[in-house]
Amino acid sequence: MFETAFALGLTQFARSLSLPERVRHRTARNAALEPWRLRNTGVDALYYDVKALTADEAFYISDSLASEGLIMIVPPSGGPMLTLCESVEEYRLRGGRDVHALAVAGMGGSAIGAAAFARNVANAIGEPVAAVVSGYGLGDIVNEAIGGAFLFGWLGHIRSNLEVIDDMVGRPKLGAYGKRDAEAEHETSRGLDADTVASLLADPALSFTLIAGHSRGNRVIADALHAVKTSDPSRLETLSNTARIVTFGGRIKMPDAFADVTDVVGELDWFGELNSRPKIATDIRVPFCGHSTNTDLPGAIKVTKIITDILAGHPEQTEERVEIVPLAVSEPVKQVETKAEDVVEVLTAPVAEPVAALAAEPIEATVEAMTAAEPDEPPAVEAIAPPEPEVVSPVAGEPDQPTPHATSKTPAKAGPKKARARR
Asked: Domain extents for the chain?
């Protein structure tokens, strides 16, 4: 927590040094917005991992904390310092062609929060990330007063319509502001941050494979993609085939062309649920986590770890697993087929000849042959258990000898027994 407080205190101190210069150019606007901007910087220090920024980076971006449409190139931790770009053309000249990830933060909309969120994404992919600052102007004050800050998913279009107030009083023309000013027929009203993101995504010289957003930044990404869908459908089709979207802290409707969208919401994130579309299912629900991504606080969503885990399940690795599965299945299938053929050959070979013989000879001849082969014998039951011979009682007055009837009967029963014994 000390590192978070140090980064916030250094940023606020550095900003106080540049306050006289900023107030001199747009006195009324900057004087009215400065307390709100300082408040939003403190809010972003609670909701974003600002300790990931170095002291030089915190001092460097302090003068542009609320510059809506400002583009930053944020490298991973341990790399060079982040780069500020005031326009899309400057972004391309400063190395934007080599950046393939885009991150848009929400909440207070300060540059320190946008840079911290982009640093977490950069640490996950190991490459620089482009970040667009949402900013905070007079239109945001009115939008917050009517509840738009708590319902950015449902009342986000009101914030875009209220940005005309900042255009009337004058504000820095950053990001894609020059393109907006040059377009005479600007039918769709969007925020400067959404227009800047749309300009980056629609630029054919730039390529993005990952788009990450948090909180209100998800709405900015959705508005930008819908703008690209209207202006250049073929470009949107290319983006849908090459880029995947990861949202944190809110489920927002993206164009239907994007099938690879991962919505991450904390289990205790009531604010994210309040600003989410109920019909959109949550892909990853992080247990015991809220809306914050500041790892110094308990219950914070670990953006770097989650994105790393999501990218670990990329379709490229899924294809490797699919290639292994047929190899494991094909080997036993071949063995079963070979064994089945052997069994069929064994069973069919001996059965074919008797079946043919029986079919060739009549059934009656076969029965007669089987009957002639067997001698006339008593049934098997009599052979096993022959009945006992009848005993005739001796007649009175004669010696105890069997009668001729009994004598003639005994050999008749003994004859078959001896014949069976010889066989």
From this structure: 2-312, 326-365
